[in-house]
Amino acid sequence: MALDINTQWSAGKKIHGYTMLEDAHEGSNSIWGKAKSPTGQTVFFKKYTSPSSMFDDWYQGYVDYQKEIKKRIDEVSRSDDKGRNTGPTYRFIEFFEQLGPDGAPESMKSMDYYQVLEYIDGAKDLETYLTSPDTTWNDRKMFASVFMFAMKTLHGDRIKIVHADLKPKNLLLIPTRRQDGSSTYQIKIIDLDMSILMDKLAPWHSDGIRYPGSPGYFSPEHLRGQVPTEKSDVFTCGLILYEILAKEGHPYDRQSDLQIYEEYRAPIPHLRGTYGSPELDDRVARMLHRMLDPDPNKRPTALEVQRQLIGGQPVRRRDAGGGVRVSRPSVPDPVETVRTPPVTPVPAPGEAVRIPPVTPAPEPVRPAAYCKLKNAGHPEGVRVFPNTAVGNKFLQVIEPEARRVYCQEHFKILFHDGKWFIRHCAPPDENKTALNNVPVSGEMELHTGDVIAASNADGTKTAMPFTVEIGE
């Protein structure tokens, strides 16, 4: 029978010293929920279902990659005088691995990967604020300013991280006050599961595969099957800033269409309010439009955008609470970092801003593509990566008839030369793998609509069918 997720993770269960405060919620690549640490702290607790040490050959690379992301985030995460984390993202508390699942036969156990993250209390995501009639123009300016301040930090030389899956739901805003009593917001960028280090290729990389992201917020590089860069983040930031600041809202009506991106159909936006003068308003509007240039080399940096949003003025000083003060009082100042190194000085008026060279993304083998396996229990499909081994560990979670598969690797999904393939790899005494009722021999190419199933020797009897979807 299929694995019931809540039988292995329910409220009150203890894992690695943490007590679960609620039943597990299921996400696309993990299960998660609130938990209490051994010291009584409320935390966000996550167990990954993908990658898996059982059938993903990039599992260990992913664990090491996340450790490096944690190390870099820790370097800029500080606490203010009230103990609040002032970094641009949630704080990574602990990573660990543990053999599981509980109660499974030893032959079906594997190392599971867990993350314990800061639980951000009192926050609402940006999408909630943008749909609220109570959100003012000044609120929107603050949202834009603190958002780009955080992105500038994420892309900076100390971190060098491309988020690669930005969207309003991944931006948490926390109302707070400066020491002078005025209100502002802190921002926390969340969901760094598939973020990319600028100086190290992701372990899940395979030429021509579309990098994970969210429909409506893909960059052109995502859709071309290229590795997203910091300029890809800037494109997505532009889509989000249109939603925050422009009367037009999302310039592409939340479509992710490479053709309309490349034709640069986004209008120069009309702002919902003013930044203090027609000249400043025009600069901001044109900056937002530049962010959506289909050529990543022509987009501004996050630092350039952030400077424009605070009026293009030099940073004068830091207030006692760590907030950045600028000379134009009409623009709210972000309160994002405390006791961090000074911001790089803004060029003098008339002096050109030096833009670091951007290394072009590698040319893809083919347009962006993905592979999903669908069945009655998962009509939306389960996405598989290249070299995914499908066996009992994989199948017991999504397929009631997984009892027909006894080995850890029954078949593999492969990708090379711009195409997807299947290869049967079970021992001789196991059931065979059939593709469209034909036993799989060697590598056989996959197409949308193909049916993969466990079968007898000649493919005449099948069970546990999956329908293939190949996406362009």
Characterise the protein shown here.
This protein has 472 residues and is an alpha+beta fold. It folds into 3 domains: 5-118, Phosphorylase Kinase, domain 1 (2-Layer Sandwich), CATH 3.30.200.20; 124-326, Transferase(Phosphotransferase) domain 1 (Transferase(Phosphotransferase), domain 1), CATH 1.10.510; 370-471, Tumour Suppressor Smad4. The protein has 10 helices and 24 strands. The protein has helices spanning 5-8, 59-76, 126-130, 137-155, 220-223, 230-245, 258-262, 278-290, 302-309, 392-398; strands at 14-15, 18-20, 25-26, 30-36, 42-48, 92-100, 110-118, 124-125, 161-162, 171-177, 183-189, 196-197, 315-318, 324-326, 370-375, 378-384, 388-390, 411-416, 419-424, 432-435, 438-439, 443-445, 451-455, 462-471. It is globular and about 75 Å long.
